[in-house]
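re the bet — no i am not wrong, look at it urself. input seq straight from the record:
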Amino acid sequence: MLYHCERVRPIKKCFSIYLCNGGRILDNENKDIKSNEKKSDNENVDKKIDEKKSDNEIDETILDNEKIKKDITNIVQKGKERYKTYRAFFAKTYNKHIIYMYITIALLVNLLIEMMARGSFLKGIYFLIGSPYVFLCNSVIILMTLSVTLLMRRRLWGLSLISVIWIISGITNAVLLANRVTPFTAVDLMLIDSGLGVITKYFSFFQIILVILALIFVIALLVYGFFKAPKVRHRIKYPRNIIGILIIWLIGFGTLSLGLGSNLISLKFGELRVSYYQYGFVYCFSNSLINTGIAKPNTYSNKEIKKIVKKKDTIKLSKAKKKPNILFLQLESFFDMNNMKNIKLSKNPVPNFEKLLKNYPSGYFNVPIVGAGTVNTEFEVMTGINLDFFGPGEYPFKTKLVDTTCESISYNLKEYGYKCHAIHNNTATFYGRNQVFANLGYDTFTTIENMDVKKFTPMGWAKDKILTKYIMEALKSTKGQDYIYTISVQGHGSYPTDGDYKYPIKVSGDVDEATKNKYQYYAMETYQMDKFIGKLVKTLSEFDEDTILVMYGDHLPSFGLSGEDLVNGDVYQTQYVIWSNFKNDYYKNEDIEAYQLESKILGGLNMNAGDINKYTQEHKNDDSKSYQEGLKNLAYDLLYGDNYASNGKNPYKPTNIQLGLHEVKVSSVTPMYNSDGEVCVYGKYFTNYSKVYVNGEKQETTFVDKNTLTIDYPDLKNGDQISVYQQNSDDHVLSKTEPYTFTDDELAPETTSSKKTVSSSKNKKQKNSKKKTKNTK
């Protein structure tokens, strides 16, 4: 039965099995089926649960993303709302209470500037607390400049622009204080060309690039702000705002007048750096911008000037005791480091100079500047005029003497037949000397552009030992007496703080490593300068003409020293000495002012030419106030007044100054056969700064030697005009030769040997150049 059941169709089979087994088999089968169905249902339920979980997870992820988006949207929306609030705040609220915003900006900008000037946040706060009225005066000046924006529709942008200008000025001041010790004055704006010429001596290429990028960013930000800054929405009432500006300026002048009257601030500065620290940057800079030249003395009149000079119709010069050559040697940043306290030197850096101080007339030399500003010492020495008569931080070389002549030692010595020379182993255009020296009576001015300088300091300044050669050439260039004013440059800053040099003199004491390296570098340079002094004295002692040599440091180096750091206690004092190669008793030891040196030297020789020179010779020992009042009257009369002392006319005419002791000349021009257009230019007194021009166009020039230059110019033809220019850049042409006209007659028939000679000289020159570059590095 079972067999039969197994062979029937499935339904019948199940029924038969059920019948045969009493329904037990079918029940089990049904149970299995139900169990499988239940299991399947469970699996489906689990699957659905898993699917639901997965759907829930996806929903949660979607919800999280939507929440993040919503949060971001909320943040953006809140940012926009806040921006609108601030915009409305500046556009509406401060339009109603605008003076509060102006005062707030002025105070904050001034505080930031003073913090930078003092190099400390706390020192800026201390200045605010310790000198509140002086701080207020500085802030009022800023407020006065900000007030002009009341006439602008883009008021917020105008406030930003003026604030940025003040802040950049403050940054500039801080940088200058750190590098040259003296602060930023308005006259520095006139020295931008000179400053750019030496910027690489103080800052690395990377630092310069950072500064340029920062300026570009600030300018771009201001341009962007111009278009995005909110405008004043209401109609500007110009008459009312102009009255408001006038009221602010009246309050400002009243505040400053009260400060001057109570001696809390001053129009006249003593030590410039101390004055900036005491009176604040904004006030002092503004003072230097407005207060220039010599103020008219209260006693100035024709009668007073005639009384001072005591001039008769017939002027007779005194008869000189002797007429020796007179040499002034101004040593850049030179002083005896043995005068510094709290340090010890392994070796005396200036043995020759100290020996001269002991054996010849000498003393302390009071100069008008510290750390920088060489030309202001020059001005006092050359003219005999006290720089204190001028505005704070002023450079008369840039503000007055560039277009006006002035009494000077050169003009006074010309009265006795002297030929006058100036020598400087740096560029002629530095401080505009190439123009100024013509107005001070010099006949020649020899600079690095006319020198064959091969030795430089690690900082790129020409070494001073080259000067002996050109001093002796100047002395031998005339049959009569010569006056030579020589300006050295080797001791110029900056002074590196790393220790990558072989220092011949070691410094020890209570100083940090960077300062010690700076001192050791300076000691190395002054040691070499002292050797130059020794060699120059030896050379002049063998010279067969009577000669006086006056030597002095122009100012202390930019170490940031105070009087407490020095034996003599004064950062405005260097030392001077008067040496001669003949016996004399014309001079004695004494401390003098820089503007009295001329009268001391000429007075010892009984030379009284020049009103200022004669006045100082006769009255320098008088009552100080009386002497200074008379000297100021003479200086004002000469530079700003009516020339009463010379009957209404300036007696001094500019000289036709020659740049270089010898005039550069072109003698011939020769194209080279069998070459790719090489042309040789022959002449005299060529240097590395000589550039060949053909028909007025500058050519790439190779310096071969003092008599030969070469250019690549294959198109040279009959009638071409060739000139040689002495220049230190494309914009500074110092001199040029008369045009030389090329003719076909000068074509060289066979110049192979000559060409080899030139090429040999060029290769030698290139090797020397590479060697110099290596040494400089």
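see?? The radius of gyration is 41 Å. told u. also The first strand starts at residue 325 and ends at 331. so pay up
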